[in-house]
Please model this.
Amino acid sequence: MQDKNALKYDILRVIAVAGASGADLGKAAETALAAAVEYVGLTAAALYLWDDEYNTTLTVAQAKSDRSKEKAAELEKELFAKLRKERQLLSAYMSFGGQVPIHSFTLPLLRGEKPFGAVIGIQEGEKSVVAEDVFLEALASAMAVSFSAQRSTDGVDLGQDMLDKERLAAIVETAVTVNHEVNNPLTAILGNVQLLLLKHQDLDEELREKLKVIETSAMKIKDVTQRLMRLTTPRSVEYSDGTKMVDISEEEKEQE
Model:
């Protein structure tokens, strides 16, 4: 039997393939959210897409109970939606006290720099959903890429558009693999380095500086894997001797 960690990242592959193949993304998102509830330990999760005026155009939700689904919907309506409109909220992790603590998150679906949807979720109990931030952010990015890939093709050469979608799907599958295979050990490296820097104040300066170099390098690797997951357009740049590589820079603004 596959372990839960492997199954979580298989969810991302399913979303990516659905986006490239033209499959029903609503159904794919429903399956992905149900799996996230199961394997991450959420009590409810939902996907919202909206238009330029923040009017909801699609809602997909999964939960362990009707009450949990209602709690997530209330949180979206009373807090996250308002903060997006009034304060341009993009992402957040929040915890609420009470007899049963509730931990929540909202993560954006971005096309370029512009949000067109969000994935939200809640988790009840002592365990914090922040512990799953890498997977949840990868899930939101995979959904953003897939829904962007199925955007209207009016005025676009369909043959080229299909090639772009297939190329993007290959990039996303690679990014999912990188997030799975690299981020897991990377998180352990980063956590242990930061723990050493925090707890051992008596380290000599040379060793402390080397640990800081490791920490900085690990953070750069994590940033690269996250930018790969946020790609919505398959662009290439010249590397050397005619070899090309995927352009993961975020400097280019969304094309009109």
